[in-house]
Design brief:
This protein is an alpha/beta fold. The chain is built from three helices and seven strands. Strands 5-4-3-7-6 form a five-stranded mixed beta sheet. The chain starts with 27 loop residues before the first strand and ends with a strand.
Length: 154
């Protein structure tokens, strides 16, 4: 029989997927961030089971790689309780800023995996969050578009 009619393994000669890079920073998370990590682990376990049932080797490899990453993130997660309303911005705080023209921006300082700048969530290791951490209401901070005053910290 010709080799043209013999099915070879779908992953024959395929390179294994490289692991996702785990940040060298402490894995600080808010309670909501821990819930997101746990949801990712559960979703990936389901995806891994489904890929195995479907005999989808690529799907299995991808789910295993991502599951290793999120399992490690869950193992190293350090939950930081929500801050009490305070005078100083810190991890978990929401900071309300106001530009001179009255435009207001609001950011919550969160863990790396929770960060979503478009939704107003910035990673505590980002340069902007480092600028805010330790600042108080009334302080003025430099932004790319000028300066803004800190109106409130929750």
């Amino acid at each position: 029989m010709s080799r043209a009619f013999i099915k070879e393994s779908d992953d024959a000669g395929a390179e294994p997927l490289p692991d996702r890079v785990v940040s060298p920073h402490r894995n600080l998370v808010t309670p909501a961030g821990l819930a997101q990590i746990e949801a990712a682990v559960a979703r990936l376990r389901d995806a891994l089971s489904a890929a195995r049932v479907a005999d989808d080797r690529g799907g299995v490899a991808e789910a295993q790689r991502d599951l290793r990453y999120w399992t490690e993130r869950r193992r190293t997660a350090e939950v930081v309780p929500p801050p009490a309303e305070g005078e100083v911005a810190r991890f978990g705080a929401t900071v309300l800023l106001e530009h001179a023209d009255g435009t207001r921006l609001q950011y919550q300082i969160v863990g790396e995996d929770e960060a979503d700048p478009a939704a107003g969530k910035i990673s505590y290791v980002s340069p902007f969050a480092r600028l805010l951490i330790g600042a108080s209401a009334g302080d003025v901070v430099a932004l790319g578009s000028g300066e803004a005053g800190i109106v409130e910290i929750r």
